[in-house]
Task: structure prediction
Amino acid sequence: MKSMYRIRIAFSKQDPVRWLSHLDTQKAFERALRRAEIPLAFSEGFNPHPKIAFASALAVGIVSLGEYADIELAEDMAPETVKEKLQQAMPEGFGVRAVKKVPQGTQALMAAVNRAQYRVRVPLTKEIEDGMVKAALDKSLAEEAWLVEREGKKGRSTKDIRGGIYQLSGHIVEGHLVLEMVVQTGSEGNVRPEEVLEIVVRTGSLPVDIERIRILRLGLFVAKGDRLMTPLEVI
Amino acid sequence: MQHTHESINKALEEGLLTKVTKPTRYTGGEYNQVKKDWADVDVSMAFGFPDVYEVGMSHLGLRILYHLINEQPRMVMERVFAPWVDMEKEMRARELPLFSLESRRPLTDFDVVGFTLQYEMSYTNILNMLDLAGIPLKSIDRSDDAPLIMAGGPCAVNPEPLADFVDLVVLGEGEEVLPRILQTIAQFKQAGRWRTGSGTRGREELLVTLAQIPGVYVPAFYQSEYDEKGLFRGTKPNRPDVPARISKQIVADLDKAYFPTKSLVPFMDVVHDRVMLEVLRGCSRSCRFCQAGSIYRPVRERSMETLKKQAAELVKTTGYDEIALTSLSTADYTCVEPLIQSLIATHQEQKVGVSLPSLRVDAFSVNLAKEVQKVRKTGLTFAPEAGTQRLRDVINKGVTEKNLMETVESAFANGWTGLKLYFMIGLPTEIEEDLEGIAQLAERVVYRGTGILREKGIKKSVKVTVSTSSFVPKPQTPFQWEPQARIEELEEKQAYLKKRLKDRRINYNWHDAKVSFMEAVLAKGDRRIGDVLYRAWQKGCTFDGWSEYFHFDRWQEAFAEANIDPEYYAYRTIRYDEPLPWDHLDFGVQRQYLVREHKKALEESLTHDCRLDSCSGCGVCPTLGVSLDLRGEKHVPNSNRI
Result:
């Protein structure tokens, strides 16, 4: 049965909850929604569970300012009320940024989201000029293929991620190399920000302490032609 | 490097946590966590659970004491668990000390570090945690202002193997005594008598003061003696100002006892991830092998009104979708049926289910399980414990084969297709016939189940899991004088059952006999075992309760080096007139009663449950000045077990 009431929640995930796995995050949401006494719609069957769908899984340890989840309600509730109640019931580190009603017939969140924006920050092991970063970026972007190795269920495989890079820039801030990027995510393919960093660093022989990488997801988007829209803007 | 909470925080966030599995074991920040400003407290305690986070967070005692102490305005309690092996490696590589989850302070910042003794095989983890914290392992080596190392919990019934390592032990239930202990410490500190930072010498004086609190045992103030043949001869005070015997403390009125209405909600999956409602404490069924049945007496119940209120509040404050009714034997709660019905009726709308963690063998229990099933499916586990009526009478497990078969029939008729059956092997007086009895019982359950499913037209095959643990003689039980079956003997018994239980529909699993042997040695050990523990830890023994980390060879080396014969502790028949290492610790159950029960066991004679019949004279009520406390309107025996 399709529920009448669907809401979309925009949220952030920072310390200390950035260490939660995707599964832990789902559970944390479910429990917070119960504590907030938000009327959830449940699935049918022997083991009923609330209907919550996340836009995209976030890897453990990554801070995000732009995550999204769709939730089905059993009865109507004003988005502002949901926002207020849910924020109070969330564990420290989760911020409820906005809540909006989702009209009937809207494309599923997970299917719609196809771009992710990241900022990656890593300490330099020795001082370098901004020009060296620019050269590394130019040289990397001139390559036709960016081959990365991935561990999968069927063992190692090689993938070309070059086609999934839509924007890429970089500069030096207080002894750190900082890259900003918009990359592909979702069902068509997923580019991992640490892979992009590794390619740029390797291509330009940049001196960084890769162990101390910090990744920030700035947001998730729906690409409409040349335009990037947030999942809240498309509804 | 001297670490502070800032430097620990930095190390964790900048790289360390990305290197370990399940980082939320170490991050804290769970909903309902209490974080206090240390400037506003007079006394601080770290609750140490000597196992990994997901095991420790399933422990109800931790949850009760955590909120109890943190509700005291000037006290703080934080948590620390044994770091998993990957985390330990990273911490040692960076010389990062063990820290609490809440404030990420090193344990040396705390006034008290208290360990709960849930299981003998976690003892090496206590040593390892102290070492990781940079606290000297032995009491005698600690400086005046080092934290006080405390222990409590069920294994405190015989804490002697840990006597060298702990400064004080709390016997019995902690709700009333722990705040008193911390208050005393706070007063000492405020009076400038301990931990003033200017080299005070208050530690011993403080421990003498604490030893005056009923239920507090300071091992250093007692001396154990042995004769020239190395036989234990007794433990006596070595100074005049401490009591000769220490008595366990209990909460007389469980209904009025503190119970938190908030509870920590872990992020990762923990073993018991649900609202835990404690319906009663104690069990007087008097199974003769059972230590819990002895040490938690007498039975005290909570009222339905209190439990309903607690359940509603906990569901609201945690967001859990399941309420578990926990106790040693929940089906014995005099109000169990109306309570379950009421909880289901109240919480069904929110899709919150009710569960029963363990069940007794009788039709009544199946009916309860059926009630519970309306909301959520739970597995059924029964514990007949022994394979023949004779042996079940020896251990006073009053269940009959007729009970069991009726129960099983009722379970299969009500839709279950799989069951678990728990047995114990190596029990006193056990012979081959008793093992054969286990196999035959399991087969009969399978045949009956298959028949019922066929009649009902269900195609699914019956699945019966048989689990055997090995008998471990435990202090304060009627079997404390009994020898344990030898490892080889237990392995032969397991091999016999493996061979007998070949039916595809039966799944057989068993406990490692070497672990059971170690449990017996540690459970009944005297102070000399401390040296063995220390050597085993030095050889790298930790997480002994986890089969992949249990190294029996290291333990054997440790025994040999310490010149200790473990068989003396596990395999010897102890005479009634011999002194026991736990004699100076009074758990209320009288020695004469245990002797009487032991003799009755050998005569295969039963003892009734004092809830259903007259007093069995165990001595707990008069010794502790308490009484049996049942809440049912009219107490009707809900079982036809005897």
In short: The first strand of chain B starts at residue 43 and ends at 49. The longest helix of chain B spans residues 432-455. Confidence is low (pLDDT under 50) at residues 637-642 of chain B. Chain B touches chain A through 27 residues (CB under 8 Å).
